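User: Show me a protein chain along with its predicted structure.
Assistant: Here is one chain, sequence first, then structure tokens.
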Amino acid sequence: MIVLGLILLLLGIFLTQNLLVTIGIVLIIVGLVLNLVPIGGTRRRVF
């Protein structure tokens, strides 16, 4: 997701499209958050 965000960001800068730049920045931020925040917990529950 981070790579897709970088590609859209670069395309938006070179093609001067503000929408592509905005989507690229949002995808980069979402990708970083998903990589840094553990979803579902890190502990294994043993019953």
